[in-house]
Amino acid sequence: MEQYVVTGMSCAACQARVEKAVNGVPGVTSCSVSLLTNSMGVEGTASPEEIIKAVEAAGYGASPKGQTEKAAVSLSDKLAAEEDALKDRETPVLKRRLIASVGFLLVLMYFSMGHMMLGFPLPAFFDDNHVAMGLIQLLLTVVIMIINKKFFVSGFSSLMHGAPNMDTLIALGSAAGFVYSTVMLFAMTRAQVDGGAMAAMPYMDEFYFESSAMILALITVGKMLEAYSKGKTTNALKSLMKLAPKTANIERDGVEVTVSVDEVKIGDIFLVRPGENIPVDGVVLEGNSAVNESALTGESLPVDKEPGSPVSSATLNQSGFLRCRATKVGEDTTLAQIIQMVSDAAATKAPVAKLADTISGYFVPAVIAIATLTTVIWLLVGEPIGYALARGICVLVVSCPCALGLATPVAIMVGNGVGAKNGILFKNAEALQETGAVQIVALDKTGTITSGEPKVTDLVPAEGVTEEELILLAASLEQKSEHPLAKAVLQYAQEKETSLREAEEFQALPGNGLTAKVDGKVLLGGSYKYMKGQTRIPESFTRKYEDLAGDGKTPLFFSSDGELLGVIAVADTMKEDSAQAISELKNMGIHVVMLTGDNERTAAAIGRQAGVNEVVAGVLPNGKETVIRKLQEKGKVAMVGDGINDAPALTRAEIGIAIGAGTDVAIDAADVVLMKSKLTDVSAAIRLSRRTYTNIVENLFWALIYNTLLIPLAAGAYVKLFGWSMNPMWGAAAMSLSSFCVVSNALRLNLLKIHDASHDRPIKNRVQTDPDGRILEHNTKEEETMTKTLKIEGMMCTHCEATVKKALEAVDGVAEAKVSHVEGTAVVELNKDVTDDALKSAVEAKDYIVLEVC
């Protein structure tokens, strides 16, 4: 997306006009204009020159947003240019205009109303000299109009281009009052010459000089408040930009030197002392410290870092000295990516904004027509021209297309900012709006619900064996194994500071277990099926094995010289916040589905622990996308994942949510990125989306109801019924406050506690489920298939299952394989004839034994 800065826009009508002009350029596929940031995002093949020409032809100005950055090759210069583009230049200018306008307006009000209504004294020169009184009002009004000439230049210029905007309404209203008053001044002059002061006196009531001036002053008040509030909405983005470090301490030829952060290259060694910000993304080589990452993730607790730990740009080193190697620099750092993501999201439009855009395109011409019609009708019913004109002017100045134009973008900007401060990044405005509307959340198990790393969960020593002895001998046996389950046992031993013994004559028995000699004793380790043939396993341990396996754990049995030592259970454990997050999602009325490649028994056990509504087991990596497609038949789906194999499913789902600690591929495919990798941020993202959408609806309601109620009042529609009417000055005051109210309402989102679930409410359009809680029968087959069952010996854990599954599915004609290490079987679904020998060879090539194919 190419971004441009657009100048000259004042309301939603301007925004709609620019969009229409650019969308008409050949080669432009989409155009999104933001009134809030005065920016435009364009996609397509059209050249910048053609786009700028189209904007200028519509009566506005445009320049490429990166124009000031072209000579700059560094991230620092680019961020400085971006920050400069967001700088609030409007408020100081409007403040000066307002002060000058109010100064002259007070003098004007003194002459026009103070003397007549309150009896304020005037110089003797003005006694019975009504012409002089009219001239002084005219001159003071002219001065105020010159101070606020921008309204007239922009308004009449837009009118000449056939695209009237809010400034057009102000300019027409103020100018109409001024011209009418000037005509009355000439008429009064003639009357005073012919009939003296008494003849001229009635014309004083026909002056609207103070109304014309007051309109401009009051609108300027509103514009200043609006500009100030709009500046606040970009605070989150500006705060992120200010986090970017300026310098880095790096090692060059063994000497520490301080350089600009833009000079750091991938592979450079940089040093960070306590109290310093980390300059670029990298990995720790030496040192231990606690790093405050709240600037990027919103997490207040510091994160411990040790050799091998990743570090991110703009985070604060709090306690120790770190020596790191740079892995990402410049625009590739985490901070730069976040800034780009938030900036791009601000340049896009939410679907709900289309309503406001459609209305805005017709709003101003309709208001001008209503004002003209109002004036004509009052003249036709016999009212004086001054009264009729006042009604028409009031219609012009009370109408507010600006509130309509700001209703959506201010809420989107603030919502994105709140998300960014809490480590939740929405890639575009549509994602921010639609995330709250999801009915089904599909969670990938590994790395999302669980940690993705096997850990020891249970120790069950045999009679006469202590836990310390069991873990000592088991870890000593496992220390030479490369199996993931062995690493879990070794990690547990390290945590318990166990001193391991040397293992001799180590042998890995593929698909079965391990054997070695430790202190002269023969140790064996392996699955229940393998070990029951090697040692006597009591009935109590068999029941314990069944209980552990039923909970989704992998029991490992160990023996010494044929005597059972005990059982160590290993499992991919759930993250601390998984159950809470799933509970919050269910309380929101969302159907939670867990996707996993595990067998039915293991998957069901983990599903029960997590508390999900439904479990879909045996899902192949390339089958997740198919499951998501099936789920979409029943409702709007969000997919949460972190791996490369999740990318197709993330793309297929209406909303893809990537865990921030996941792969770059998954993050690129997602619509929402969770920087903290906490599952509770999924419910927080949905909560923020719902509240932002509610805020947008509130803003649109206010903008529409305001105009719906006040335009008839301004036109005098209620005069005959209730005696209600509106002075043009009050109309201008109401208009000036309407946009301010919309922006202020959006700023309330900053007060939202996105992790507070106490106010959650279920969605009304929940998905329909059967008595078992399932929304559909998940079947990833596209057609009827034949099946074969293989009985396999040697599988010990889910990793063995994955190996066998992958081997079988690589055979031509195999549609899907459902493997269970607990049952020792693989059920193969075929879409064409495959020989038993082909299936057997595929499994035995991975060192497992096929006992039977049936």
Overview of this structure, please?
This protein has 854 residues and is α+β, with helices and mostly antiparallel strands. Helix content is 48%, strand content 20%. Helix 14 (385-398) runs antiparallel to helix 27 (680-715), helix 15 (401-421) packs parallel to helix 29 (728-747) and helix 27 (680-715) packs antiparallel against helix 29 (728-747). The chain is elongated, with a radius of gyration of 37 Å.
The main pleated sheet reads as:
7 strands, mixed
Biggest β-sheet: strands ordered side by side in the sheet: 14-26-25-24-15-22-23
What is the 3D form? elongated
**Beta fraction:** 15-25%
Helix content: 40-55%
Number of helices: 31
Determine the mean pLDDT: 82
Uncertain runs: 68-73, 776-784
Tally of extended strands?
A: 30
The computed structural class is: alpha+beta
Radius of gyration: 37 Å
Intertermini distance? 57 Å
Give a topology summary.
Layout: E1 2-7, H1 12-23, E2 28-34, E3 39-44, H2 48-57, E4 61-64, H3 75-86, H4 90-118, H5 130-147, H6 149-160, H7 166-195, H8 197-200, H9 209-233, H10 235-242, E5 247-252, E6 255-260, E7 269-272, E8 281-286, E9 289-292, H11 294-297, E10 303-305, E11 310-311, E12 316-317, E13 322-328, H12 334-346, H13 353-380, H14 385-398, H15 401-421, E14 424-426, H16 429-434, E15 440-444, H17 445-449, E16 450-461, H18 467-478, H19 484-495, E17 504-509, E18 513-518, E19 521-526, H20 528-531, H21 539-550, E20 554-560, E21 563-574, H22 578-587, E22 591-595, H23 600-610, E23 614-616, H24 624-632, E24 637-641, H25 647-652, E25 655-659, H26 664-669, E26 672-674, H27 680-715, H28 719-722, H29 728-747, E27 786-793, H30 798-809, E28 814-820, E29 825-830, H31 836-844, E30 849-853
Parallel strand pairs: 15-22, 15-24, 22-23, 24-25, 25-26
Antiparallel strand pairs: 1-3, 1-4, 2-3, 5-6, 5-7, 7-13, 8-11, 8-13, 9-10, 9-12, 14-26, 16-21, 17-18, 18-19, 19-20, 20-21, 27-29, 27-30, 28-29
